[in-house]
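Module 6 notes. Inverse folding takes a fixed backbone as the condition and produces residue identities as the prediction. Think of it as a translation problem where the source language is geometry and the target language is the twenty amino acids. Below is one complete input and output pair. Work through it position by position during the lab.
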């Protein structure tokens, strides 16, 4: 990947030099002529929502470069599979996504089916690392919904996490689901150190309550699993839940 990036940069530089030379020659032949490049260079950015050094934190995850960041909720069929490119540790990686739609919980999104095993339950969708024991996973993402509003749910989750973590809470903008509440649990209760298990929670407002995407991963997986989960959550779209028995607060 690095060789490809370097080769692309060199070619771009050579093209720019040749173009400048050509324009200079043309200018000498006809001082009254006006010239513009045939193609306007497009700046490339991998800063994402906030251009900070790469970590497992969602705010440092750049937008998906291909379809996963734009196609969710715009016509993909349930079960449709496709390839996309994400950035991990400064390197491009091709991943294979599957689009899913869960009308009972009221959302659709894309997930990396080669890295995670999907487990569907009546009250949640769970995506577990293929390297984990499904009976006792440590690196997984779960998505569910609540009939309560986002503020109420975030207060409850924040209180629960505060028993073991020093938490952070702030607004975060998802690509397709809009503004949500994000709660991070990546510091011990005593402060100053990172625990073995990290968590990141997105509470997404909806007309019938909220949707909750909850990331769980080990500290050594922050650059891997944490970022992969963040890409997946960014594809989430809130949809209307199917008519049926309403969810209780316990569910």
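Target side of the pair, the amino acids:
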């Amino acid at each position: 990947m690095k060789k490809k990036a370097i080769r692309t940069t060199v070619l771009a530089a050579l093209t720019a030099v040749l173009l400048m030379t050509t324009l200079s020659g043309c200018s000498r032949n006809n001082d009254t002529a006006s010239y513009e490049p045939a193609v306007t260079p497009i700046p490339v950015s991998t800063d994402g929502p906030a251009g900070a050094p790469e970590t497992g934190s969602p705010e440092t995850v750049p937008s998906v470069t291909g379809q996963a960041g734009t196609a969710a909720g715009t016509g993909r069929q349930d079960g449709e599979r496709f390839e996309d490119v994400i950035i991990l540790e400064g390197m491009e990686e091709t991943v294979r996504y599957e689009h899913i739609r869960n009308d009972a919980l009221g959302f659709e999104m894309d997930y990396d089916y080669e890295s995670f095993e999907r487990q569907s339950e009546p009250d949640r969708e769970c995506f577990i690392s293929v390297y984990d024991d499904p009976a006792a996973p440590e690196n997984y993402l779960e998505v569910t919904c609540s009939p309560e509003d986002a503020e109420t749910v975030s207060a409850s989750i924040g209180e629960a996490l505060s028993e073991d973590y020093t938490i952070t809470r702030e607004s975060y903008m998802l690509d397709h689901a809009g503004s949500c509440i994000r709660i991070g649990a990546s510091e011990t209760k005593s402060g100053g150190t990172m625990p073995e298990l990290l968590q990141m929670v997105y509470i997404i407002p909806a007309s019938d309550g909220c949707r909750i995407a909850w990331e769980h991963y080990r500290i050594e997986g922050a650059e891997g699993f944490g970022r992969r989960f963040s890409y997946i959550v960014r594809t989430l779209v809130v949809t209307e839940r199917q008519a049926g028995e309403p969810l209780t607060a316990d569910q």
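Reference fact for the lab report: Residues 2-29 form the longest helix (28 residues).
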